[in-house]
Amino acid sequence: MAAVSSPDAHALEEGAIFAPRFDAQGLVVCVAIEAGTREVLMVAYMNALALDKTIETGVAHYWSRSRHALWRKGDTSGQVQKVVSLRTDCDQDAILLEVAPGGDGKACHTGRKSCFYRKLELDGGRRLAFEE
């Protein structure tokens, strides 16, 4: 992605220029939702290369913070995410991908549809309840 001078707050919030704000590590948070249901599937990070590849190919690419590597969603799992739309939030420091999941529609590496399969229950302390 070509370097763009940072627009002022008004331009970021009200303008038509796409100028994602990457953090100090060069990353921007990305939430992927299913196009049909709008269910949150996963949260990942993108660097400029991942964002460029996503825009160029129409397939979700992310940056692995643990492996320090670019990855195309589905390369090993078959769960390719085709991008239906890409949005940014008001101050352009988060990306929302609306995707059509491939394969069997599971986005989580655990084999579940969504990475958000547990809910915090506060009765009797803090514990996670599984929702399948």
> Which sequence of SSEs, written as H and E, runs from N to C?
HEEHEEEEEE
Discrete helix count: 2
CATH architecture field? Roll
CATH fold name: Ubiquitin-like (UB roll)
Write a structural description.
- The chain has 2 helices and 8 strands; from the N terminus they run αββαββββββ.
- By secondary structure, the protein is mainly β.
- It has a single domain, classed as Phosphoribosyl-AMP cyclohydrolase (Ubiquitin-like (UB roll), Roll).
- The strands form 3 sheets. The chain has a 4-stranded mixed sheet, covered by helices on one side.
- The longest helix has 10 residues.
- The radius of gyration is 16 Å and the shape is globular.
- The relative contact order is 0.18.
Q: Would you summarize the structure shown here?
A:
The protein is mainly beta.
